[in-house]
Amino acid sequence: MNNQSKISNVANSAGNIDVKDYIYKVLAYWKLFLVTIVIALIVAKFMNGYLQKKYSLDTIISVKEENNPLFSTGTNIAFNWGGASDEIETVKVILKSRSHNEIVVKRLNFYIKYLQEGRFRMEDKFGYTPFTVNLNREKYQLFNKLISVEFTGDETFRISFDFNESGSNPVINYDKNTIISLPSKELSFSKEYNVKDTINTPFLNFSLKQIAPFNIGEKYFIQFASFDGTVSANRSISINSVTNAASMLKLQMQGVNKKRLEVYLNTTVKVLDSIKQIQKIEYAVRTQAYIDTLFIAEAEKLKQLEKDLGNYRETNNIFDLSSQGAEIFGETISLEKEKTKLQNYNDYLQNLSSYLRRNNSYNKDNLVPATLQIEDPKITSLINELVLKSSEREVYRDMIKDNHPDIIQMNKEISIIKNNLLENISSLQRVNANRLKKLNTSLIKYASKKKKLPKQEQGLLTFQRDYEISEANYNYLKQKKYEAGTAIAANVSDVKIIDTAKDLGQGPNYPLPSFNYLVALMLGIVFPLFYIIVKELLDNKIHTAEEIQNNYTIPVLGVVGRNSTKNNLAVFERPKSSVAESFRALRSNIQFLFKNNDENSSKTLILTSSVSGEGKTMISINMATVFALSGKKTILVGLDLRKPKIYDDFDLPNDVGVVNYLINQKTLDEVKVTTKIPNLDIILSGPIPPNPSELLLNNAAEKMFQKLKEDYDYVIIDTPPVGLVSDALELFKYSDAVIYVIRQNYTEKGMMRMIDDKYKNKEVSNISYVLNDFSIKSKYGYGYGYGYGYGYGYGKYSYGYHENEKPKGLISKIVNIFKSKK
User: Fold this and answer.
1) 85 or 517: whose pLDDT is higher?
2) InterPro entries annotated for this entry (predicted)?
């Protein structure tokens, strides 16, 4: 396969994502997942206990205009309106209104807070305290200050609080809803009281009502909060229709105290019921008051007319009308009653027309007078439409501005209804005017007949006519007064309670423990997963031999495991270890890499790497060891002149070495050192020279390699990192094979690009990579190198063939860290 094909294969394999491999990488972090999930669940448990619990209660009511079945719209003055109802929208506005909630808050004294110190905060104990506060609203109370109530006996308690350091203390009067400041000379107040006592101080004016036994030593706190603030906080009631068809509403509130929610919801419905009843009979009450005034005046007038009629009869000795006079009287009375009714009706129509022209907002009390029964069904229908549409517009005005399209459309509809109503009024006025004209003509006719009667009979007829008309008005007003009173007494409520608010042991709707635990579990998974993804994206290290194969052209010779010995003599110190076995595998594999495969010829092996710290020296020492232990005469030469290391592993001084030979101070035999390892000699680097590159390029170096090849079967050269200096590249010409060391989780991916390019360009040959410090517990891959190819044994199946290498504990790891630092 040519180089171009190899490059293409590398690119294709690099572009593919191994899902299975990635899953193994993620699963390798199971400990991290476990820790984060446990921490997240602990945090969720803490938050479930720390967060203020909130509850939700609701009540269901029916709002439907109810009429007393004993009365019809024609006889019951309270229900002569009829028509469609806007009760639902009106009730919604009332329940959220400031005035309504002011009544509820004032009735419940909700501005008094009952508190007790809890684990994390002051807990609301309204409804659960063994006492209630009887407040004197006309006097001032210490505003917004925690006042301690500690029980000292079965019926005694101690009141205590701290004054402001400034000496100025705000106090509130709930009757006037005003706040002022009062000076104080003391820093604190503390006094014991009996439940029968009334607390009267400039700052406190109330008494306690005991409703349950006191637990001696138990402490509560009371606080007098802002009236307006309390009202505002309780206006957040949620109102929703239960169904689209029925006129039922669900009132719902949320808060930290279920008893407070229960009491407030039930009380707000009771207040609404009383308000609606008052509003419903308000028309009848005003009617009754108006009729009472007219009734009293008419009764006095009738009494006076009765007296005047009697006196006239006695004075003129005339008690009955003649048959002709009786006929004239009967016709006149009938015409007068009809005329009065038409005149009143016309007056109403005129007032109604003027009212419609003057105003833009309308209500039924102004459009329908208390004593008038509207007979024209068309006008009644139009008035109903006008009032309903006007009320609907006023409700919308509380939520949107007048330039909103809905308001503009309603204004147009109201204008059309008003114009139709004015046209019908004008038409009816013309009809009534013609009827009045005919009535006046008839009355003139009977007036001329009246003049033909005797003088005394004319007077009697006049008195009787006035009396009869007054008596008819009296009876009419008496009937209306009865209807108004009956309507008030027999009022039927429009508000029906379907389901009261009640504490049935409902759990909190915030926080939701199960939801929080689920979120914690998700976050416990997401956070480490995000960490892994970010780490993968930012990671630029080599982790597996497969990565090297997929991204570089130079082949992988083998894999060397993590050295757990105290020095680099892993093969000699622990010959049965898996690391020693991996070096034996490398010894076998490298035979195919040498240029000269003749077993009797000397072979030179050069080891290099990208940067310092990749284990190049450790590999060179152990490769030399395995060759020596196999019976081959081997020499290890330390040519990393800038940073020599070999001497330390063999416990030798670095005073004399190859540098001394290269500068002609010592002979080759004088710089050789025989080691404790059979068949292995070493040449140390010696003192660090100022010009290492020049020393390696002189003729002495070439002579040295020639001499070593003559004397030894294997010459192992430890060179400087090729990524830092060029010395190693200059030495490649003496090699039969080159090992390029890569360290797992240490070497960066781009570091081998230079040597790989040289290999592609055939500037370098007989070179292979060795992956050092490989751990099958790595989070990357899944135990790569378990086979013969990489010489890392058979994993768990190698038990009995290698020495057991127990994992280090935490203490051992810490000790090794300090040893490495030393």
Assistant:
1) 517
2) AAA_dom, Bact_polysacc_biosynth/exp, GNVR, P-loop_NTPase, Wzc-like_C
